[in-house]
Amino acid sequence: MRCDEAKNLIQLYMDNELDPCNTLEVQRHLENCPPCSHLLETFMLQDRLLSEAARSERINSDHLRRQILDAIRDQKPKSGWLSGWRRAAAIIILIGIGSLIALRTILPADGDVYAAAISDHRSCSKRTDMTLAQGEKLDQLIGSLVDLKGAPDLSAFGYTWLRGRSCKLYCKVKKAEAQFLHLVFYGPGREPLSVFLARHPSKLVDGEAKLLLRDNSNVALIPGPKVDLIVVSPLDREQTSSIVRAITEQLQSGQLVSRSASPAQ
Amino acid sequence: MRKGDFELRLERFEREALAHLDSLLRAAARITQRPQEAEDIVQETFLRAWKYFDSFQSGTNCRAWLFRIMFNVINGRRGREARSPEAQLEDSGEGAARRDNIIQFDPVRQIQSREVIEALDRLSEEHRSVLWLVAVEEFSYREAAEALDVPIGTVMSRLHRARRELRRLLAAGRRGLMA
What we know:
The complex is a heterodimer of chains A (265) and B (179).
Chain A: H1 3-14, H2 20-32, H3 34-56, E1 58-59, H4 62-74, H5 78-97, H6 103-106, H7 112-125, H8 135-146, E2 161-171, E3 176-186, E4 193-199, E5 210-214, E6 217-223, E7 227-233, H9 237-253
Antiparallel strand pairs in A: 2-3, 3-4, 4-7, 5-6, 6-7
Helix pairs in contact in A: 1-2, 1-3, 5-7
Chain B: H1 3-16, H2 21-32, H3 35-51, H4 62-81, H5 85-91, H6 94-97, E1 103-104, H7 111-122, H8 125-136, H9 141-148, H10 152-174
Helix pairs in contact in B: 2-3, 2-8, 3-4, 4-9, 7-10, 8-10, 9-10
């Protein structure tokens, strides 16, 4: 193989894109030709320097990552999502008013309502940062949104601190936006757990809590006096059941605890 | 689409596609020589990738697919400015002076790597792109062809010329002839 031929193939050889036959020819040529060999080394060195230089540039892409994820979540099919929540709000309000309509037939058999709660739970439970309220601010939020003294106390289940946010959803029955309070409970070595609360005007508790499995999450609907709750739990059915009982008791006996005293973060 | 599917899809997207965020960001800044636009370009790339994510097969080459989308985004923006490829040859060298917040050149690096990056900046964008894909991202010729949406032969000839040009620039630099 001559030098001009070898030079043409050197880059293909270097990039392992050359067929086996020509590879051998080039190799043989390089063994006996210092200039071509040198050329190969130059190209290899260039590439290596380029690669190293490129990788040595420091990149901070965290905020961009979050921005992208937020933009994607904003694109979530809103009409479908809202109608799911409309239904949830409607059902919660109906439950609260102690409607004459047979509630058991209205309770969603399709996954929409719970899927919406699960989805909100999954996105919020990852955000352990300033966007969620805690401590005194959380107490204020709880008071203003659902008129309760505090939040359920799940420390017996290893959930030692919590944060919250409000979400506003359009309620078809009220023909207005309804407020929901979304509480996220955290505990060491535990997956977060969510409780969504919606206020309603009635002191009546209609029906019993219902526990379902949706999308690999245990979800419970807890009717309460003046407020109804949806729980999205990462725990198994039995543990979720215990939590639901505890919350129900606390609601009914008014034992809700202010969180201002809980440890920050 | 059931809402539960959304989260699963997003998780898969984060795992398979967003893993390449840094690679794309670096490439965008360096290849276009517009570090300020790099974030926009990359964000648009991922939003488009998300839109078409269902058509992307899990386990196949996500990175090449993402780069393909990114080059489309870049060309789309370029189209609005109607620049000819030849004009870029004169233009290169400006971008080298710009340093952005997100990408910081480590001052501790040896002189050699600064030289080679500056030489890279002086190549035409076409040459810079193909060289970046093969030398930095270690794409095969076929992957590079897919990402750039050109025939493999074009990848080969551009790469060939790019490496030679780089060699020429570096040699000239060492002799102190670089402007």
